[in-house]
Amino acid sequence: MNHREIIDTMMEGDLFSQWLGIEILETAPGYARISMKVRSEMVNGFGICHGGISFSLADSVFAFASNSYGEQCVSIDTSINHLRPIRVDDILTATSLEINKGKSLRLYEVTICNQKNEKVAWFKGTVFNTGKIWERN
Predict the structure, then answer these.
(1) CA 54 to CA 44: how far, in whole Å?
(2) Rg (the chain; Cα; Å)
(3) Does residue 137 surpass a pLDDT of 70?
């Protein structure tokens, strides 16, 4: 399967990413860019987007990029920095770039920007390559 077919297969089974309303914008081996709109049910008691939402967006694009070579990869370490508040109706775009690709470990960086192209979060993650190959369902 090519990188887009892999990501489409992942999305078919990823009900949480579907609930987030993720739209896949661009893919390439080791790379993915996605977007979503923040809805009112995604805010916390401060009236800003819950950190788990931005983390989940970053985690999804990270998963798409790291699995795009056709080998199944799972996260083993992640972290996020929230740089500015995210509000209801913000359109978020998350971009995942591969920083290092080893045989079993791969490192990725994710930036999340709002519709004003302001960076609102920065995420890094490491995956383990299981060696299993993605196949059509």
Answers:
(1) 12
(2) 14
(3) no
Report the length, in residues, of the chain: 137
Strand arrangement of the beta sheet that strand 91-101 belongs to: 23-28, 31-37, 91-101, 105-113, 119-133, 71-82
Q: Domain ranges in the chain? A: 3-133
C-alpha 11 chain-centroid distance: 11
List, for residues 44-86, the tens digit of each pLDDT value: 999 999 999 999 999 999 999 999 999 999 999 999 999 999 9
Q: What CA–CA distance (Å, rounded) separates 63 from 66?
A: 5
Q: For all residues of the chain together, what is the average pLDDT?
A: 96
3-133 CATH fold: Thiol Ester Dehydrase; Chain A (3.10.129)
The number of beta carbons lying within 10 Å of the beta carbon of residue 104 is 11
